[in-house]
Design goal:
Blueprint (H helix, E strand, L loop, with lengths): L4 E4 L3 H14 L3 E4 L11 E4 L2 E4 L13 H9 L6 E3 L3 E7 L2 E6 L2 H11 L4 H26 L5 H11 L7 H6 L5 H7 L15 H10 L5 E3 L4 H12 L4 E3 L2 E9 L2 E9 L6 E6 L3 E3 L3 H8 L4 H6 L1 H10 L4 E9 L12 E5 L4 H5 L2 H5 L5 E5 L1 H5 L5 E8 L17 H21 L3 H4 E7 L1 H8 L13 H5 L12 E3 L8 H16 L4 H11 L15 E13 L2 E8 L11 E5 L5 E10 L2 E7 L5 H8 L5 E8 L11 E6 L4 H9 L7 E6 L18 E6 L8 E2 L2 H7 L8 E5 L2 H13 L4 E3 L4
Parallel strand pairs: 1-2, 1-13, 2-9, 6-15, 13-19, 26-27, 26-30, 27-28, 28-29, 30-31
Antiparallel strand pairs: 3-4, 5-8, 6-7, 10-11, 11-12, 14-17, 14-18, 15-16, 16-17, 20-21, 20-25, 21-24, 22-23, 22-25, 23-24
Helix pairs in contact: 1-9, 1-20, 3-4, 4-5, 4-8, 4-20, 20-21, 24-25
Length: about 750
């Protein structure tokens, strides 16, 4: 199938470009995403009903009537809604300081002047400089959007007004302020662009500060709704957002981009696909584009040498470790209102930004605390704690597979997480007691899920050199190839979105800017309910049977339209559960177009309400197959450990496996009424089944949790392949024991 354009990457930049080409010009656009979830850093992940927004913590300038809001409204068809964050959206807690940035810039300025009266004139000048420099940065955005003939005039204007913009943030502050406390507060948001004051350009600092002067907002229902609402407009014109597709090469002919080579990893086997289009847009970062997807020799290599040199001189950006917390109760019970909290042990952000050794030792110097559930309006309640660092300390584990990097890596993560939680506790007393579940990501995690080299999710670093170097996009030296996203625009969600707008403007030709401006001003076209053909991988489905197996587990059988093709037992399906919400469920069975799922209602979330309320015969949409979970062929003994609906992928595996008589299943539940192993029709089970009942004593069953059974139920784990699926807490609790037990491999796939 020939498309009008191919977009590599489904982050906010790529989806903005694709969405504008589709909605403004009716283009058929193919978006290819490496991960199994669309959205890039705007996606969320879930554990047992709780969700975390990995890259979106707040967004400014999306109030009614704001220009950025107009883009979101247009691209989402008016379906993306926003929650206003508290008036004090950012709180800064440093030694001797506890001060908040508020949504009224004049009030915030007065607050700073009252706290630091000797610096009153400098404070007032600072806010003027911030606005002026932010306007200077905006000129750069506009220059990338308008036809090339207008760019020289805008570039000249930038050069004449950019002296302050291209100094470092530290140099600007040191020349105007004396108080270390005040400088610490003014640069407290440095994590929003990923560089401490001595490295960041004042241009990016001013842009971020100005972005939030009138307050902050958050997508109602979570940041995953950004991708899902944008996706509709792309599909309605015949385009598609295909996940589990890794682009490995941008194809060129005669020096021009003509398509891409990609690996399709949706099924049991990886297939190479060739897609062609007259326009290719890369939204996965300039380094990956120019250093890995394009040839570095020949005519194309010579044409892109300047871009590669710029990338080399700019170097790598920063990454982070993030602790994700599921909370036992509403954090408002300990005085949290949903605003963000920046906490530091000292006043020097540059010292904190380079203290990686302290972070690894469990003594982080700074953390950022966010409460996604309060901002999105969802439960269960959650929190996130972020500390910035580079990827270098984690390189020793980079060669190990995700989810199984060994006990030393697990111990390092636990030490880091404990230290970050302790520092967060110093500013938010009572947080530790609220923690129900905790996991941590590192720069390796960010690299695995986003493909950003070294996990540098802010893209190219926003140093002064970036603002004085030749532009890297959206136009490139390769005809037919455009760049989108942060490296074209600027750091953050809106910066990446503006990079996406710029790429769309250039893709539409000399009148692209005016076409897009007119369309966005006119507002979103109402397309709700308009039928369209689903892209490959998505199937319309009808609920044929739903059956309650236990008080909190339903079996659902759905009849799928169209051929599914090959799949691997262990993979999962993504079910549309209403609105813009999708939920992932392991495939318990798939035969002759009939999909079997086990759906838990324990969390009470959107998926729970869907299966409780939906009637047989209801139609929906399913995307499948997805994921890389499946049986290996090592020949080792196999031990399967499951709780609740975590049994589902194992049921599919057992049905297709050979030699089950030598395998063992540990299944955990509270009592016999929840024992799915006896309630599933035609269930095939291994030779040994250890039923672990935590709240009932039954002859022939183990009294206790599966974690207890591992130690006390005479199960030989030495040299075995152990498969885990169930609650996130169970998986986390089992891992330390399995790390010590001499198992051959631990196989699990959280999604």
């Amino acid at each position: 199938m020939m498309y009008d354009a191919i977009v590599i990457g489904s982050g906010i930049g790529g989806l903005t470009t694709a969405g504008l080409l589709a909605r403004v010009a009716g283009k058929r656009v193919l978006v290819l995403e490496r991960h199994t979830e669309p959205g890039g850093l705007t996606h969320t992940f879930r554990r047992d009903g709780a969700s975390w927004d990995v890259g979106v913590h707040y967004i400014g300038q999306v109030g009614p009537g704001d220009r950025t809001r107009a883009y979101f409204d247009y691209l989402s068809g008016g379906q993306l809604e926003w929650n206003r964050m508290p008036e004090a959206y950012d709180r800064f807690v440093y030694p001797g300081i506890d001060l908040s940035a508020v949504s009224d810039p004049e009030q915030y300025e007065r607050t700073l002047i009252r706290a630091f009266p000797d610096e009153a004139a400098a404070v007032s000048r600072y806010f003027k400089d911030v606005r002026r420099t932010a306007a200077w940065t905006t000129l750069g955005f506009v220059g990338a959007m308008v036809p090339p003939r207008f760019a020289p005039a805008l570039n000249l204007l930038q050069r004449l007004t950019g002296r302050t913009a291209t100094s470092t943030t530290k140099d600007y502050l040191d020349a105007r302020f004396r108080s270390p406390e005040l400088k610490a507060i003014l640069t407290g948001q440095w994590g929003d662009y990923g560089l401490p004051p001595s490295r960041s350009a004042f241009a990016v600092h001013a842009m971020i500060v100005a972005h939030y002067l009138d307050g902050a907002w958050f997508p109602r229902g979570g940041s995953a709704r950004i991708a899902r609402t944008f996706e509709k407009g792309i599909e309605q014109t015949g385009g598609a957002v295909r996940v589990a597709h890794e682009v490995t090469e941008i194809l060129t002919e005669g020096g021009a981009a003509v398509g891409v080579r990609a690996l399709d990893r949706r099924g049991p086997e990886t297939h190479e696909r060739i897609h062609r289009a007259p326009v290719v847009v890369s939204a996965i970062g300039a380094p990956t584009t120019f250093q890995h997807l394009l040839p570095t020799d020949g005519a194309v290599g010579r044409a892109t040498a300047r871009a590669r040199d710029t990338i080399r001189r700019l170097g790598a950006g920063s990454s982070a470790t993030t602790v994700y917390l599921r909370l036992k109760a509403d954090p408002r019970t300990i005085g949290v209102d949903g605003g963000n909290v920046w906490v530091g042990r000292g006043l020097d952000h540059d010292a904190a930004g380079t203290s990686e050794r302290a972070l690894l030792e469990g003594e982080p110097q700074e953390v950022f605390i966010s409460f996604p559930s309060l901002k999105s309006g969802q439960e269960p309640h959650t929190a996130e704690i972020v500390s910035f660092c580079s990827a270098e300390p984690f390189h020793p584990w980079a060669h190990r597979p995700r989810g199984n990097r060994g006990p030393d890596y697990s111990a390092l993560k636990e030490r880091i997480a404990s230290g970050m939680l302790a520092l967060a506790e110093s500013a938010v007393p009572g947080l530790t007691d609220l923690v129900d579940y905790m996991e941590i990501s590192t720069p390796l995690t960010y690299e695995d899920y986003t493909a950003h080299p070294a996990g540098a999710f802010y893209g190219l670093p926003a140093t002064p050199l970036r603002y004085t170097s030749p532009s890297l996009g959206p136009r490139t030296a390769v005809p037919g190839l455009l760049l989108s996203g942060q490296d074209t625009g600027s750091e953050g969600v809106v910066g990446a979105m503006m990079g996406g707008v710029a790429a769309a403007c250039q893709a539409l030709g000399p009148h692209g800017y005016s076409m897009i401006s007119r369309a966005v001003r006119s507002g979103p076209e109402k397309r709700v309910g308009r039928p369209y053909t689903l892209p490959d991988g998505k199937h319309r489905a009808a609920l044929v049977v739903k059956r309650r197996l236990t008080p909190s587990v339903w079996e659902a059988r759905l009849s799928l339209e169209g051929s599914v093709g090959a799949w691997t037992p262990g993979q999962f399906a993504r079910l549309h559960v209403g609105g813009d919400a999708w939920r992932d469920y392991s495939i318990a069975g798939l035969e002759d177009g009939m999909l079997r799922l086990l759906i838990s209602t324990r969390t009470g979330g959107r998926g729970s309400r869907f299966i409780e309320e939906v009637e047989e015969g209801t139609r929906t949409v399913v995307e499948l197959p997805l994921g890389r979970y499946g049986l290996t062929t090592t020949g080792h003994r196999r031990v399967f450990i499951a709780t609740g609906t975590g049994l589902a992928p194992f049921l599919a595996m057992f049905h297709h496996a050979q030699g089950l008589e030598d395998d063992t299943l540990l299944f955990g539940c509270r009592d016999r009424g929840e024992d799915l192993t006896t309630l599933i029709d035609d269930a095939v089970l291994p030779g040994r089944v250890v039923r672990c009942l935590s709240r009932e004593t039954v002859t022939g069953s183990f009294r206790g949790r599966v974690t207890d059974a591992l130690a006390r139920a005479d199960i030989d784990l030495t040299g075995a392949d152990v498969y885990l699926c169930g609650s996130a807490a169970m998986v986390a609790d089992c891992r330390p024991f399995l790390d010590r037990a001499g198992v051959a491999d631990i196989l699990t796939e959280p999604y």
